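Supplementary Data S3. Sequence and C-alpha cells for construct A.
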Amino acid sequence: MKAAVYFGNGKPVSIEDVRVKEPGHGEVRVAIKAAGLCHSDVSVLDGTIPYPVPVVLGHEGAGVVESIGSGVTSLKEGDTVILSTLAHCGRCVACESSRPTQCRNAPSPKDSVPFFVGGKPAFQFANTSTFTELTLVREQSAIPFDPKVPFDRACLIGCGIMTGVGAVLNRARVEPGSSMVVFGVGGIGLNCVQGGVLAGASRIIAVDVNPQKLELARTFGATDVIDGGKENALEKVRDLTRGGADYSFECVGNLGLIQTALDALAPGGTLVIVGVPKLGSKFEFPVHTIYNNKAILGCRYGAARPRKDFAMLADLYLAGRLKIDELITSHYALDDFQRALDDLHHGHLARGVFQL
C-alpha cells in the first residue's frame, strides 16, 4: 500500500510502499478514505514538532474499519470512523471527568511503530497516521460517525474543526453576546470563528495578513476583518470593541501575536493560545498587566471529548449549522503531496484534502 513517509534531515516527503501490522489487542485497522493536510504535519517537517523518523505522516482522517483485534467492543468491521489523535486511557480521573486531553496514562505516540518501510520499522504520527491507505489505531482513537457525512468532510472534524470550535466552546466557554478576536484565520482560526457563531458571540473579529483568508472568514461568520499587514490590529480591535475584546484566540503560534492577543483584551478578558510555537519557546509579559482579572489559557486539541464532540459536530454539519464544505479548497491524490504542501505554504488553502 502507499503512504507519505518523512525520513528526516529536511528531505522531501516521499510516497512509499508501506506495510502495516495486523491489529493486536484493543486495536483496529482502518482503511483511510480521506485525510486533511494540517499545519501540524508541516511542523514535523520544519522541526517545530520534533519526531522520530521514518514516520508515516497525517493525523486528520476518516475511513472504514477494515479489521479489529481482540477485546474491541465498541466497533465492528465496516463501521465508518473519524480518527482522533487523542489516545487517552478512558479510566483515569481526568478521563472519567470528561477531561481526556489531560490524561497522562496513555502511551506516548512516539513509541508506536506499526508500519514497515523497505522492511524496516516506521513510526506513527500523532496516534493516527492518515496519509496512508491503511492505518492501525487504538480503539479509543476510532470514533464512529453518521455515514451521511461524506468522508472528505468528516476527516476535518478529527483535528481542524475540533481544535478551533473546541477552543471556543470547551476551553474558553465563550458567553453569548460577548466579543472575540481571532488572530490567524487558517483552518484552525476559521473554526474558531464559526465556534464563536455557535456560542452566540455578538462581535467576531478576524485578523490576518492574507486578504483571501479574511474574505473567507466573513463567510464563516466574522463580523469584522482586519488586515494586519495594512492596519494596526491592536488599535483597530480596541476601537471595534470599545477598549478590548472579551476573548482572544491566537491561532498561529507566533510569540509577537500572542502578546498582541493579550494586549487586545478588555479587563476580565481571556486569551486562549491555540497556535503551536517552536518547542521550548518562552513568552514573557509584565505580571501586573493581568491583575485586572485577565486569564491566559493553553488549549490542547480543543479540550476535546472525542466520542461526544465528534458526533455533535457531525450532527451540526448535517443540520446546516457547521460549515465544512466551505473549508475544502482543493482535493488531491496522495501522489500530489508536494503540490498540496506548496499550496499550503503559499496560503492558498483553508484545507486541502487527500482522497485515498
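Construct B, processed identically:
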Amino acid sequence: MPGEVRTRPARLIVNADDFGYFDGVSRGILEVAESGRLTATGIMANGPALERWIGPLLSVPTLSAGVHLNATLGEPLSVGMKQALTRSGGSFPAKGKLAAALLLGRIAADVVMEEWRMQIRRCCDLGVRPAFLNSHEHIHMLPLLYGRVRSLAAEFGIRHVRAPRAEWVVAFAPADLARNSALSIFSAMSKAAGSDEPRLLGVAKSGRLDVAYLEWRLQRLENGVTYELMCHPGRSDDVALADPKLAAYHDWEGELQTLLSPGFGELLHRHRVELTAFPEEREMHQ
C-alpha cells in the first residue's frame, strides 16, 4: 500500500517488447539494457533487423531474452501461414482481422501455432535460450490460442508465458476501456487469471510509459513479489515512424528517457524495488 514500509524488496523485471524488428528500436533497447535498467527483452523473430542486432543482444549476459510471438506485423516465416494470408498479400493482418479469421475458421489455430513454433526455433538457431513467451498486441491471450501457447512453451522448455490483466487507472481513455475489457474477458476465458507468472505492469501506459505512472505503480507493489514491467523504449527510426499506427501508439524516445532517468532510479530506491531477470521456478514462491 502507498506509504507502507516494505520489509522485503519487491522484484521487478523490466521487459522491452519488439526487439529485432526495427533498427532504432533495437538500438535503444540495447542502450537501456547496457545501463542496467532493462533486464529482459522479447524478440520478434520475423524482424527484418534481427540478424543485425542478435550479436550485440547475446553479448549482454544479464539480459533475459524471450520470444515476442508475432502474428500482426510484417510477414510470416512459415509456409502454412503465408498460404493462409493470401487475401492480405501474404502479410499479417491487423489484430481485429486476425481474431475474426480465427473465430470464423478462415485461419486455423494450428497454423498460427506452427508459425510461432518456427519463430521460437529461429531464435534458438540464432543462439537464444528463450526464458519466456509473450506476444505482439497480446494476441496470444485469445481463448483459441492461450492454452496452445502454454503447451508450446512446455515443448521448448520455456518456463514463463506472459499473462496480462486489465490495469485500471484513475483517468483512462476509451481505448483503455476497450483494451482492459478485452483483457478481462480473455483472461477469464483462457483461465489465465490464476496463472503463477510475474504480475504484469505497464498495461495502462503501454507505449507511453512515464515517471508519473511509475510513481503511482511502484509504491503499490507487494513485499517479496515478482513483477514484470512491459515497456517499449527505442531510438527514432524512420521505418517505424512511417507507419502511422505505430507512430501514434509509441513514444519510443520518451520511454527510453524515462527508464534512463534519475527519477526512475530514485523511485526504485525509495520503494525498495530490486531489478531482476526472469526468475527460476523456485524463486516465484519465495
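Strands lie at 10-19, 40-43, 64-69, 132-135, 160-161, 199-201, 226-231, 273-275. The domain at 10-285 is CATH 3.20.20.370 (TIM Barrel).
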